[in-house]
């Protein structure tokens, strides 16, 4: 029986027939691997996701974590899933060998981990954050910090979080108030509060390693004065054993519409409930240099943004497969031209409008899966490059595609979930079926790790313009190469459509800034991100058509039809959006608060 979490056939196509990840084994970093080891990891993750994660997805939604004023309690199945994941050495699967890691390509790890996101995104959230935390500290932490915190996280003994937001600041990190006061021994004492911190209190692990943004008194104003600190729940003794309780405590739990199984907390630092070494404040350890916290944190934030994008894809994908299964098995109605009311009902998958909804879902989720895996391969190329130029080229593409890979799946795979509910009809919004929960869980992703608005400003205001437009030039070169290759195939008509649309995107982008009205240009940055994302997904579909060219069978025919759908139903949206962007419309800028 085929899984309704993800399509292994599609993952194999994307990994081996399109991205050719087995060729990464020619690089020194991945030389110990083969296609067989990649397949084994995919098999293992599918098995663990089905066995330990999927069965309690509804239970963790119905019985979210509780806080009695002292202890946070989560359902026991979460701990069982954590232990199964950790015992399989999956936390370190992509880490350096020097840290005990297997140095598996990120591309393969992301595909394998997608099974867990599809099965139970809440429980997987604890693990995803821990891996990203460990990766940041492995990159920027001291040897002692790596030994004390990274290695225990990679074995599953400790877990990790990121603590950025504050109630009064939200996403405006320049306005955070948490302060870090230096001590003579080189440590710091932190005072303040953090909001919306996922996974920051539980009993799953021996310790929780919080990465906290704070300001050292006397530092520069704004984001240039932010530093990064390790603030563990418990201090760690020199021999690695657990020491005193640190003065970082939970003030309460936030209750969300989705992803309810992962604790989401308000954390207080230095409120006086605990006083390590008899001194007020939460003990923190500076990561790297002072006032470079934002630079360091972007390492984890960008990884988390790609993770959010993949989580959105996985939820959209499993909703699609479940609505597809339902449509195949649900008899209702007859064909529009059928005249005999006594004829047997047909499965709803026979109806054109249901096919439309299923095709839309397929186009969204398979296109988005391609994008997230493409970005993961860029990470692998960047980390194993043969030259600085190769690494720089991969980095430029990754920079410009990261806000798209986070936001486009968060918007359009959520729409896939919406359509999955619609395919189910009245059953779709009942809790007896999974698709309503998938929608609620996925609705958080347009906000997680930076809203659409934040990602769009990053794309249009920074990634497009930096280094004289070098990122956009690098992406255009890659898109042009795909178009050129497709011109000699059956996909030639679609290649011409993408070529015309992409050329117009570049021209409109240039005109928006040439006019000198930066305020108007950025006012519609969210429209720009959506347009840009649609064209990128169009590119991803053209890439998949090239990989499927000359191949026969239902799988490949399905790919071709989904690509046709995207080009006929979705790509035309961009024309009107580009008209709006080119006009530098100031309707939103001119709107006054009193007019609402």
Number of separate helices: 18
User: Structurally, how many domains make up the residues?
Assistant: 3
**CATH fold-level name of the largest domain:** Four Helix Bundle (Hemerythrin (Met), subunit A)
Mean pLDDT: 97
User: What CATH architecture of the largest domain do you see?
Assistant: Up-down Bundle
Q: Which residues form runs of ≥5 with pLDDT under 50?
A: none
- The helix content, as a percent range, equals 40-55%
Give the number of DSSP strands.
12
How many angstroms does the end-to-end distance come to? 54 Å
CATH class category name of the largest domain: Mainly Alpha
Order of helices and strands: HHHEEHHHEEEEEEEEEEHHHHHHHHHHHH
Shape: globular
Classification by helices and strands? alpha+beta
Gyration radius over CA: 25 Å
Specify the biggest β-sheet.
8 strands, mixed
Assess the beta-strand content as a share of residues.
5-15%
């Amino acid at each position: 029986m085929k899984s309704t979490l993800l399509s292994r056939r599609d993952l194999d196509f994307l990994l081996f027939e399109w991205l050719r990840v087995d060729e990464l084994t020619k690089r020194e970093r991945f030389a110990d691997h083969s296609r067989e080891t990649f397949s084994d990891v995919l098999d293992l993750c599918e098995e663990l996701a089905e066995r330990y994660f999927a069965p309690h997805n509804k239970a963790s939604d119905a019985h979210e974590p509780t806080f009695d004023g002292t202890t946070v309690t989560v359902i026991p199945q979460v701990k069982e899933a954590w232990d199964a994941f950790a015992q399989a050495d999956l936390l370190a699967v992509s880490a350096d060998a020097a840290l005990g890691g297997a140095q598996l390509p990120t591309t393969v790890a992301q595909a394998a981990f997608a099974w867990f996101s599809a099965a139970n995104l809440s429980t997987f959230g604890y693990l995803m954050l821990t891996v990203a935390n460990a990766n940041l500290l492995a990159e920027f932490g001291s040897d002692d910090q790596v030994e004390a915190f990274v290695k225990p996280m990679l074995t599953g003994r400790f877990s990790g979080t990121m603590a950025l937001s504050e109630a009064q600041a939200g996403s405006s990190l320049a306005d955070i108030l948490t302060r870090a006061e230096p001590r003579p021994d080189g440590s710091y004492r932190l005072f303040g509060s953090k909001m919306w911190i996922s996974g920051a209190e539980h009993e799953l692990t021996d310790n929780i390693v919080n990465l906290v943004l704070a300001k050292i008194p006397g530092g520069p104003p704004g984001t240039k004065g932010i530093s990064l600190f390790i603030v563990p729940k418990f201090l760690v003794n020199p021999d690695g054993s657990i020491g005193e309780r640190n003065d970082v405590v939970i003030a309460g739990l936030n209750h969300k519409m989705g992803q309810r199984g992962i604790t989401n907390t308000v954390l207080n630092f230095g409120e006086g409930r605990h006083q390590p070494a008899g001194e007020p404040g939460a003990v923190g350890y500076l990561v790297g240099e002072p006032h470079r916290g934002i630079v360091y944190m972007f390492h984890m934030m960008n990884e988390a943004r790609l993770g959010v994008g993949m989580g959105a894809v996985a939820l959209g994908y499993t909703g699609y497969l479940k609505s597809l299964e339902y449509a195949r098995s649900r008899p209702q109605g007859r064909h529009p031209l059928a005249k005999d009311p006594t004829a047997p009902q047909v499965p709803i998958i026979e109806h054109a409008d249901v096919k439309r909804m299923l095709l839309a879902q397929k186009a969204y989720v398979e296109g988005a899966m391609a994008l997230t895996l493409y970005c993961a391969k860029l990470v692998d190329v960047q980390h194993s490059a043969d030259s600085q130029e190769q690494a720089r080229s991969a980095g430029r593409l990754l920079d410009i595609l990261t806000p798209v890979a986070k936001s486009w799946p968060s918007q359009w795979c959520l729409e896939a979930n919406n359509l999955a509910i619609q395919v189910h009809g009245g059953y779709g919004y009942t809790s007896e079926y999974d698709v309503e929960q998938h929608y609620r869980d996925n609705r958080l992703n347009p906000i997680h790790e930076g809203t659409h608005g934040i990602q769009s400003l990053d794309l249009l205001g920074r990634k497009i313009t930096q280094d004289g437009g070098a990122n956009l030039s690098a992406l255009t070169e890659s898109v042009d190469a795909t178009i050129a290759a497709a011109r000699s195939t059956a996909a030639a008509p679609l290649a011409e459509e993408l070529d015309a649309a992409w050329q117009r995107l570049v021209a409109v982008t240039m005109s928006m800034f040439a006019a000198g009205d930066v305020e108007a240009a950025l006012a519609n940055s969210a429209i720009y991100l959506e347009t840009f994302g649609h064209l990128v997904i169009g590119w991803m579909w053209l890439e998949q058509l090239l990989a499927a060219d000359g191949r026969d069978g239902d799988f490949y025919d399905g790919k071709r039809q989904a690509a046709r759908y995207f080009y006929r139903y979705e790509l035309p949206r961009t024309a009107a959006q580009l008209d709006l962007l080119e006009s530098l419309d100031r309707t939103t800028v001119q709107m006054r608060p009193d007019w609402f």
